[in-house]
Write a structure and sequence with these properties.
Largest sheet: 8 strands, parallel, barrel
CATH architecture of the largest domain: Alpha-Beta Barrel
Structural class: alpha/beta
Number of helices: 18
CATH class of the largest domain: Alpha Beta
Strand order of the largest sheet: 1-2-3-12-13-14-15-16
Oligomer: single chain
Helix content: 25-40%
Shape: elongated
Number of domains: 3
Strand content: 15-25%
CATH superfamily of the largest domain: Phosphoenolpyruvate-binding domains
């Protein structure tokens, strides 16, 4: 399904978008990737949603990426005898391991690993940062705190610890079970929550065993500090601004977002900007102007994808939310400033023949009347390198691997077409021209750029470029049968 935009749209599925017709309508409205949130829904519900996505994919002959978002280690306080309490500024409050129901002076925090890592002066944030506590004294089973920002604290509210790297396993037992379940189903991407360091990805990679690409969610200050190392061992990145905005001052998030997006682009790895993009559309058919501006900013920055969370999973207007994102993207990408920003921010450390080939393809498209770039890709690497260039024409990724086509649905500007394995470059040229004509990217008066690797079907061998006319005479001359 051809999109008239480059940025991709990720839509989270949930109670408001679990039936076949809604999932189909979301894809037709513009959703390129569907996110399965493993924090919500049973395995049976996740399996049904996965089944419906693949049915839509088959019916519409349109490769769709499925992203399974693992919950990660969730830190929560225990329960209160009265259900909730009011904490006043300047008051003392204790967190401990006792399972006795809490009151206005203390509550359980059933995570001994937190106490082991805390130091005097550290901060704890409760309920998405609405309550802020500062540690005055701590031991192996308690932390005495002063209330910096008070408010209502209630049962099972989440806790963030921004000042320290916690000795927590990146994957909980639930995450391990969920990972094996979704990999067996056949998802394309795994998102790891609360990544703190590059080592956090090793176990997930080992368990996934190549069955899904691994994406790191950047939502902790420690992940920002070690971002280069995390990016190096990740297949993709999600800038998860929800928890990031809780653990860091909110004014720090926009420049961090811009910096991370540029680093991902330079590394030719897809990056998603997520959280609260059109949040008002959970209850309203129209977004706020500020939300539209936020979506537009991510697109201007060159993000590969923008994401809807509760807007499409639990909101009243899931299809309208996707349509709104699509419309904003089309409008932004038609703005001359968009192209100027992308060109000015192009920065790549080109070291290989493949780097040179895709850069040349982009330059040829910019200086001549080329209508599209067709790249043959086995593993997806050539398409990722081509997308890194952010060319001014569409990218058609030709591949014989459905798994590759699905994963590339997350990548900027990439339109995937399944093609039989090729053994000769002549066959590849004919197939690329036919695909460009069939998909409506060109007419017989146009030309395309084709990149490929010879010998074929060996990942990482991109070494050839050709400009080909799209007329029937060329097709007949190269493929008379």
């Amino acid at each position: 399904m051809r999109r008239h935009r480059n940025v991709k749209i990720v839509a989270t599925l949930g109670p408001a978008s679990s039936d076949y017709q809604t999932i189909k309508a979301l894809h037709e409205a513009g959703a390129d990737v569907f996110r399965l949130n493993m924090s919500h829904g049973s395995h049976a519900e996740i399996e049904q949603r996965h089944k419906y996505i693949r049915m839509v994919e088959k019916e519409l002959n349109s490769p769709i990426a499925i992203l399974a978002d693992l919950q990660g280690p969730k830190l929560r306080v225990g329960e209160f005898a009265n259900g909730s309490e009011e904490l006043e500024n300047g008051a003392s409050f204790r967190l401990d391991l006792s399972d006795v129901p809490g009151d206005a002076t203390r509550v359980q925090l059933p995570h001994p690993e937190i106490f082991a890592a805390l130091k005097s002066g550290a901060h704890l944030l409760v309920n998405d940062g609405k309550i802020k506590l500062q540690v005055t004294k701590c031991g192996p089973d308690f932390a005495d705190c002063m209330v910096i920002n008070g408010g209502t604290i209630s049962n099972r509210k989440g806790v963030n610890v921004p000042d320290v790297i916690l000795p927590l396993a990146a994957l909980s037992e639930k995450d391990k079970q969920d990972l094996e379940f979704v990999c067996a189903l056949g998802v394309d991407w795994l998102a790891l929550s609360f990544v703190q360091r590059p080592e956090d990805l090793l176990e997930a990679r080992e368990l996934a065993a190549g069955r899904a690409a691994v994406l790191s969610k950047i939502e902790k200050p420690s992940a920002v500090e070690r971002f280069d190392d995390i990016l190096n061992v990740s297949d993709g990145i999600m800038v998860a601004r929800g928890d990031l905005g809780v653990e860091l001052p909110v004014q720090n998030v926009p420049p961090i977002q811009k910096r991370l997006v540029r680093k991902c682009r330079a590394a030719a790895k897809p990056v998603i900007v997520a959280t609260q993009m059109l949040e008002s559309m959970i209850e309203s058919p129209m977004p706020t102007r500020a939300e539209v501006s936020d979506v537009a900013t991510a697109i201007y920055e060159g993000a590969d994808a923008i994401m809807l969370s509760a807007e499409s999973a639990a909101g009243q207007f899931p299809i309208q939310a996707v349509q709104t994102m699509n419309n904003v993207a089309v409008e932004v990408e038609s703005d001359q400033t968009y192209r100027e920003i992308l060109d000015a921010s192009r920065k790549a450390n080109r070291q290989s023949i493949a780097d040179g080939i895709v850069a040349a393809a982009r330059e040829i498209a910019e200086t001549t009347n080329i209508k599209t770039i067709c790249c043959y890709t086995q593993s997806g690497t050539t398409a990722l390198l081509t997308a890194r260039e952010r060319p001014c024409v569409p990218i058609i990724a030709m591949t014989s691997e459905m798994r590759t086509a699905r994963r590339l649905a997350l990548t900027w500007g990439t339109n995937c077409v399944l093609s039989n394995s090729k053994t000769r470059f002549k066959e590849a040229v004919v197939s690329a021209v036919r695909a460009a004509l069939a998909e409506g990217y060109v007419t017989q008066d146009d030309q395309i750029v084709i990149t490929a690797g010879v010998p074929f079907n060996i990942p990482g061998t991109t070494n050839i470029l050709r400009v080909a006319p799209c007329n029937e005479r060329m097709i007949y001359a190269m493929d008379p049968e």
